[in-house]
Amino acid sequence: MPITIDWQHDLNNHLEQVQIADGHSRNVNFITDASGQVVRRDEVATGGSSPPSGYTPHELHYYFNGIQIGDVSNNGTSDTDYAASIAAHTATGCHHAPWRIARAGHSDSTSPITLSANSVQVT
User: Fold this and answer.
1) Beta-carbon-side half-sphere exposure of residue 21 (alpha carbons within 13 Å)
2) C-alpha span between 80 and 102 (Å, rounded)
3) Is residue 73 within 8 Å of residue 100, measured between CB atoms?
4) Which of 36, 52, 77, 110 has the fewest CB within 10 Å, making it most exposed?
5) Is 59 in contact with 71 (CB distance < 8 Å)?
6) Which string of DSSP letters, residue by residue, matches the chain?
7) Quick one: pLDDT at residue 66?
8) Segments of the chain scoring below 70 in pLDDT
9) Max intra-chain CA distance, the chain
10) pLDDT digits over 42-72, tens only?
11) Residue 57 · residue 36 · CB < 8 Å
């Protein structure tokens, strides 16, 4: 069976959608920030195909100053490699993982933030 993949970009040439036609046809939709980093990824079955049981991957990616600081996904985590992710999905008998948070390296301390009309002060 031939596989067809079509990429679509927005006016800024940032990835917007990937259409995949294979045994499980689907669109993968992306929302990017101003610099083109993917902040959201959602997969939707198309063309009358139905996804494998319970398989509707969603991902949220969080960045600070251009550096990824975390992600939330039901499609494995970014600190799990591809082979390990497939093994985990196969072992559970379904094609999705429970929602997980990766690299949420936030400390237990807090810093008050003071907002004013023209500035932000972190103390």
Assistant:
1) 8
2) 9
3) yes
4) 110
5) yes
6) ---EEEEEE-TTS-EEEEEEESSS-EEEEEEE-TT--EEEEEEEE-TT---STT---EEEEEEETTEEEEEEESS--TTS-HHHHHHHHHHHTSS----EEE-----S----EEE-SS-EEE-
7) 86
8) 1, 48-55, 76-86, 88-123
9) 61
10) 998 887 666 665 568 888 988 888 888 888 8
11) no
Range of the domain at 18: 4-122
**Residue 41: what pLDDT?**
94
Neighbours of 67 (CB within 10 A): 8
What is the rounded CA–CA span in Å between residue 49 and residue 93? 20
Within 8 A by CB and 6+ apart from 69, the residues are: 62, 63, 103, 104, 105
Residue type, position 70, single letter: G
